[in-house]
Amino acid sequence: MPTAIFGSIEAGAIYALMALGVYLSFRILDFPDLTVDGSFVTGASVAAVMITGGYNPFLATMTALLAGFAAGCLTGLLHTKGKINALLSGILMMIALYSINLRIMGKSNVPLLSEETAITKITAFWQGLGFDQAIQSLLGALGMSFVPKTWGILLLMLVLAFAVKILIDLFLKTDIGLAIRATGDNETMIRSFSADTDLLKIAGLGISNALVAFSGALVAQYNGFSDVGMGIGMIIIGLASVIIGEAIFGAKTIVRATLAVIGGAILYRIIVTLALRVEFLETGDMKLITAVIVIGALILPKLIQQQKERQRKRRRLAEAKKTNAYGKSGEHFAAIKSDS
Q1: What are phi and psi of 227, to 5 degrees?
Q2: What is the chain's pLDDT, residue by residue, as a tens digit (340 residues)?
Q3: Which residues fall within 8 angstroms of residue 212, CB to CB, at 6 or more apart?
Q4: Cα(36)–Cα(23) distance, rounded to whole angstroms?
Q5: CB-CB contact of 191 with 197 (8 Å)
């Protein structure tokens, strides 16, 4: 169990980059971008092909990020210049990327197990520092027998996720970032200030899909392969991470919201890992588990809010009855009762 939980936290830290991209498109731009299912694989396929071709894995990962940016910009162009519905433009780009990704890889699956990747380089670098032995000695002194292969991937992926989070926070506070936020909130208003909303949408979608492709490249290197079908349902996973994070940690400010997304991505992977350990559930049920998680994350906060509202009205009604018992006018009591 500890090994499975540790692995889910590792994966969650990498998928958090994808969830941050989904947060930008769905929450900031208010754009239902289904390009994510395709751009995730685009990042994975570009990185895999370059790595197997002998390129530096870090260069391959950054190139994957640029490929995702291009895919997002194309979706934005279809919507803004082609005047295609937002949902349909994402679907069209997702479909197109399936064939593009096959073209990039040349086949449906590219293995990376025998290649030197960014993950293997990070692992080798971390082990060279000797921190694993120090952490394991500390855990042993505390009586904890759980010892993972290495702590390097987890810690460095968390650092990367929080670094991207901070960059997003800073970017959204700049003039361009504020304009993008305003475009998602009230496009007509920001256009009245002579802002080019088309360009802002294109840039926002480009950044969003760049993060998604970046995550896809790292996931491919983490899993040891790139597959043309690995992006199916990725948008739901991203939404689940955003919704779970917002429901648990809140989203009153941008800084808190981006932190919630990272926490939501990690919690999602832990929930799925625990769910798959239930006897009657199988690996093929992962999509069903994801759907149930999203449904629960959407419904539970509303039910909790409704329950709190009912309790608040009961308290007001009880106070009104007590006030009425002392001979005061019943008009106020009648008003509260009708409100409840």
Answers
A1: -130, 145
A2: 567 788 888 889 999 999 999 999 999 999 989 999 999 999 999 999 999 999 999 999 999 999 999 999 999 999 999 999 999 999 999 999 999 999 999 999 999 988 899 998 988 888 777 766 776 666 666 666 666 667 788 889 999 999 999 999 999 999 999 999 999 988 888 888 888 999 999 999 999 999 999 999 999 999 999 999 898 888 888 988 898 888 888 878 899 999 999 999 999 888 888 877 777 777 777 778 778 877 887 787 778 788 888 888 888 888 777 766 555 555 555 555 555 5
A3: 17, 18, 21, 22, 35, 36, 39, 40, 43, 68, 72, 234, 238
A4: 11
A5: yes
Distance of CA 217 to the CA centre of its chain: 15
Residue among 272, 270, 263 at smallest CA distance from 291: 272
Q: How far is CA 60 from CA 70, 83, 87, 275, in A?
A: 15, 34, 30, 34
Q: Are 258 and 23 in contact (CB under 8 A)?
A: yes
| Alpha-carbon torsion (162, 168, 169, 174), positive or negative | positive
Torsion, CA 179, CA 180, CA 185, CA 187, rounded to 10: 70
Name the residue among 12, 20, 17, 7 with its Cα closest to residue 217.
17
- Residue 6 CB neighbours (<10 A): 17
pTM of the model: 0.85
CA 335 to chain CA centroid, Å, is 45
DSSP-derived letter for residue 285 is G
